Amino acid sequence: MIKQKKSIIILAAGNSIRMCSNLPKVFHFLAGKPIIQYVIDTAKSMDASKIYLIYGQNGDFFKKKIGEQGLIWVLQTKQLGTGHAVQLAAEYFQDDENIIILYGDVPLITKKILNRLIKIKPYGGIGLITTILDNPKGYGRVIRNNNNVVGVTEEIDATEEECKIKEVNTGIMIANAKDLKRWLNQLNNDNIQKEYYLTKIIAISHEEGNKINTIYSNDSIESYGINNRLELATLERIYQKKQVEKLLLSGVTLLDPSRVDIRGTLVCGIDVVIDTNVIIEGNVVLGNNVKIESGCILKNCIIGENTIIKPYTIIDNSELSTDCIVGPFSRLRPGTKLESKSHIGNFVEIKKSLLGLSSKIGHLSYIGDAKIGDNVNIGAGTITCNYDGANKHKTIIEDDVFIGSDTQLIAPISIIKGTTIGAGTTVTSDIKESGLIISRMKQIHIKNWKRPTKKNK
C-alpha cells in the first residue's frame, strides 16, 4: 500500500476577544507551555510534508514567541472565518496530498487519534472527528440522515431541534487537497455571522455524493477547545488530574494529588514522595526514595536517590547527586551541581557552582561561580563576591576547608586544602598554604560611653 503524502494546517488567527487579554489566546499557558505549542508538537509528530500556521495580526510577535519552527506562515489579515483561513493556504496544496486541519486552541489532540482519522478517510470524501457532549452549548451540531453525516450546523444558525443534538463537530478533519480546493471555492458567507464556515464543505461534499466518515473522540479532553480563561482553567485542572493519576499508578506517593502541578515532564524512581503545593516545570528526574516536601519548585533538574528537598526550596537547572539534603528556603540557580551527601541549609543561594562530597553550607550564604571541594564547611553569612560590576569571577575552595561565619571571599580567589578561615574575615588574595586566616579590626572597649538621645523639639 502506497503511503500518501499529508500536510497539516493549524488555524490560529482568531482575535481572542473572550480571553479579555492583550496576549493572543494561543499564547496563554496550559501546564507551563503555550497552548499553540502543544498543537505544533503533535503536528510535527505526524511526519507531515508541510505544516501551515494560519495567523492573524502580530505576526512578528508570533514568530518571536515560538520561533519559525520550520512552519509555513500564512497571514489572514481579515478574520472572515475558518473557511477563508483554509482558502489562504490552499494555493500551496499539492493535489495528491491529504490535508489535516487542526486548531491552535485545541491543544490536547493526540497523534493516536489523528492516525485513526487518517485510516477512516474515504476516497473523495471527508474524515471527521466528532464527540458526544451532555452539554453541547457553543459547538456545531453534526447533522445525520439515516446515520449518514449530511452536514454540520453552527449553533448560532441551528434550529431549536438541531440544538438538541449532542453529537458535536470538533472541527478536526482530513480531506484530499484537490477535493478540498474545489469545495472551498463553493463557500459563501450566507449566515448570521457573515463568515465563510469551513464546516460547510461537509454538506457540499455530501451533495456531490461523497461519504463523510466519522470517529468519536474517546476522551473529550482531546477535542476540548479554549475560548476564555474559565475554559483554560477547566482544562488545566483536567490535564493536571490526568498527570497525577499517571504518577500515582506508577508508584509515586502524592500526599494530596489535588495540590501538585506538573508543568512539564516528571520521571520518578521507586518510592518517591511528593508533598503538597509542589510545582514541576520543564524536565525533572527524581531518583529512588527522593522526598520533595511542601511548597518546592523544581525546574529542569535531576535529583539523585535518597535526597530530601525540604519545604519552599527552588531548584532550577541543577543536578543533585545521592543522599543530599537541601532546604528549607534554599535556592539552587542554573549551573549548580551537588555531589553526594552535600547539605544545603535554609536561606542559601547557589549559582553556577559545584559543591563537593559531604560539603555543607548551613544557612544564610551566597555561593556563585565557585568550585568547592569535599568535606568543606561554609559558615553562616558567607559570600563569594563574584561580580566586580562588569565581569563574573571564580572562587576555588579545595578539600577540607573550614570557613567561619560572616566571611567574604573576593573573587577571583583560590583557597588551598585544609585551610581554616576565622569568622568575620575578608579574604582578598589566594591562600597557598594551609593554616588559620583571620582579618579583623582590633576590638576596642570605650568605657563610660553614652548612647546619643533624641533632642527635644
From TrEMBL:
GO molecular function, one term: magnesium ion binding
Listed transmembrane segments: none
Stretches the record annotates as Pyrophosphorylase: 1-229
Record's subcellular location: Cytoplasm
Record's cofactor remark: Binds 1 Mg(2+) ion per subunit.
Reactions the enzyme catalyzes: alpha-D-glucosamine 1-phosphate + acetyl-CoA = N-acetyl-alpha-D-glucosamine 1-phosphate + CoA + H(+); N-acetyl-alpha-D-glucosamine 1-phosphate + UTP + H(+) = UDP-N-acetyl-alpha-D-glucosamine + diphosphate
Region (N-acetyltransferase): 251-457
Entry EC number(s): 2.7.7.23, 2.3.1.157
Annotated Mg(2+) binding sites: 105, 227
Listed InterPro entries: Bifunctional_GlmU, GlmU-like, GlmU_C_LbH, GMPPB_C, MobA-like_NTP_Trfase, Nucleotide-diphossugar_trans, Trimer_LpxA-like_sf
Residues where acetyl-CoA binds: 380, 386-387, 405, 423, 440
Acyltransferase as UniProt keyword: yes
Domain MobA-like NTP transferase: 9-119
Residues the entry annotates as binding UDP-N-acetyl-alpha-D-glucosamine: 11-14, 25, 76, 81-82, 103-105, 140, 154, 169, 227, 333, 351, 366, 377
Keyword Membrane: no
Subunit structure: Homotrimer.
Protein name as it appears in the record: Bifunctional protein GlmU
Species the sequence originates in: Candidatus Providencia siddallii
